[in-house]
Amino acid sequence: MSKEIFVAFATQKGGIGKSTVTALAASYLHNVKGYNVAVVDCDDPQHSIHGLREHEMGLIDSSTYFKALACDHFRRMKKNAYTIVKSNAVNALDDAERMIATEDVKPDVVFFDMPGTLRSNGVIKTLSQMDYIFTPLSADRFVVESTLKFVTMFRDRLMTTGQAKTKGLYLFWTMVDGRERNDLYGIYEEVIAEMGFPVLSTRLPDSKKFRRDLSEERKSVFRSTIFPMDTALLKGSGIREFSEEISDIIRPQ
């Protein structure tokens, strides 16, 4: 396997914003932190991140404004947008290695956006080759129970037996409703701590701005595979703090 750091956002519960978080974290690390990033979109058949890139490229090709904006962005960054590979859980590792072998600028970090179910073929095998896994959960009893079953199984059957190369498995709260009781998270985190799992300190809110893609109707953008997040929209989103936490954990030695 390559020396690049492999990171997956994975859960066995769909509809929890995993692909959005993957795209936002990749964007921040690539555009703000200076990492060279690549993404393997193996969330078949949705391929949301790959589809977002295609949507953005279509807008840039058809719009003089967005074309000039992209040229200016790449000129200032002095590097291209991060590579996105369309794949599936079975072929993800092979596709990642082929991509790395052919890239002129090797990625420091490769993010894998995994399917939302462990039943998909190849998911466990691919996850076992991740250096770090970050698993989202929301303050819903069924989501918490499902997530804890998944991380416990992965740790006990694969990490502790040496079948997985994973160095760290972390949980994080997402889709947080500001009206929810704060003590509810504390209660859940006490249980999670007793089970021996770390939880990131940043809690991502349930915000419509997370779905604000590049559009002809508006100039500011938040979720993008090409452009950095609008500064005004970044404030209060938790993405800066969340991505900094991830950076501190996976930082190459």
TrEMBL record:
It comes from the Bacteria. CDD domains: ParAB_family. SUPFAM superfamilies: P-loop containing nucleoside triphosphate hydrolases (SSF52540). InterPro entries: CobQ/CobB/MinD/ParA_Nub-bd_dom, DNA_Partitioning_ATPase, P-loop_NTPase. It holds the Pfam family CbiA. Residues 7-217 form the CobQ/CobB/MinD/ParA nucleotide binding domain. This is CobQ/CobB/MinD/ParA nucleotide binding domain-containing protein. The lineage of its organism: Bacteria, Pseudomonadati, Bacteroidota, Bacteroidia, Bacteroidales.
